[in-house]
Amino acid sequence: MAVRSTSEALFAGALTDFPPSDALSEQILDAAREQFMTFGLRRSTVDDVAKRARVSRVTVYRRIGNKDSLVQACLLREYRRFVVDVDDAVAALPTVEDRLVEGFVAVLRHVREHPLVGGLLRLEPETMLPFLTLESGPAFLAMRAYLTDRLREARLAEGRPASDPTPVAELMVRITVSFLLNPVSCFALDDEAEVRAFARRYLLPLLAAG
Amino acid sequence: MAVRSTSEALFAGALTDFPPSDALSEQILDAAREQFMTFGLRRSTVDDVAKRARVSRVTVYRRIGNKDSLVQACLLREYRRFVVDVDDAVAALPTVEDRLVEGFVAVLRHVREHPLVGGLLRLEPETMLPFLTLESGPAFLAMRAYLTDRLREARLAEGRPASDPTPVAELMVRITVSFLLNPVSCFALDDEAEVRAFARRYLLPLLAAG
């Protein structure tokens, strides 16, 4: 299965120009995303994606590549959208506390509204569970690095001591991923007011502790 | 696979007399535990366990039952040992903060020293991952209920307001399970001094927030 190497390719390396972002590539990737979310990764073929995108199989190969490349391109595009969404949601907020709370709200909203990962998790858990747990290393480190960078910038901007925010960032990523993996909860995380209250009450004390 | 129904049978119902705790049953379950940890659940048979325990196949069926019952008995015995270990580690401590810190240390020590769950997770992730994530409901609720009860008793004993400790208990279970599921970490959780420092620094603020 391609997911392990995809995870490493996705998150271990530097940002690249892959996937291309021209209109035809976007059309193929939109089709691939819908195909994967509907039928899972395992049973989907390049032919299925080509048909759904109303292009030829050769066009898919020329623009994106084989099936592994399609999966990688979809997940990478999703991850970039995720980062942009979260950054956009918090950019104008004045304090790190506000940005953390609204960032957490944006993360859960993104997972709800763009459910590639969550949808595949329910459709094909045997493929997605290893990618989100035992083999999550590169993706987990990328998320932690993203949040660590944001927390470090905030500390510097606010003139606070520059202690390493990695532990706090890691804990927050763990809590967030946990809600995807273990869905039974006493928190109603599909309710944005409750998500916000959760973050204020339980994430901000971790920030202070770090 | 038996794991889903096992999880429900294990954790949803009341405590029962199963498995029996006489010497012969213990001998069979010790053999089953070793068999499962070495060869996984899927490939192990009642015959394998009987041979390892040096008893007849009929004795295994009479004392414990079929393979599903063996798996259930092993996990249930492990869970009870886990609860007793954690309770023993914290019983003499004066404050809820101390009990929480040493309880977390005891949980991680138990996972390290009695690695049925962790061992099976590495040996047979396709069986164990659903049991620890999407289908973890009953086990997850049992752990949360255990910790909720302990926190509630502590609040009552210390004369503090009896607000519901369920949210804090859930968060702490989530963080603990996360270290089993996502092993890449900046924390050295095989070092007890570091585990203790982690709990003081990051779990106690959650207790105060709850």
Automatic annotation (TrEMBL), chains A, B:
Keyword terms: DNA-binding
Sections of the chain in a coiled coil? none
Q: Does the keyword DNA-binding apply?
A: yes
Does Kinase appear among the keywords?
no
**Where do transmembrane segments lie in this chain?**
none
Residue ranges constituting the HTH tetR-type domain according to the UniProt record: 22-82
Lineage, top-rank taxon, reads Bacteria
DNA-binding region(s) in UniProt: 45-64
From the UniProt annotation, give the residues forming the signal peptide: none
Molecular function as annotated in GO: DNA-binding transcription factor activity; transcription cis-regulatory region binding
| Name of this chain's protein | TetR/AcrR family transcriptional regulator
Look up and give the organism this protein is from: Streptomyces beijiangensis
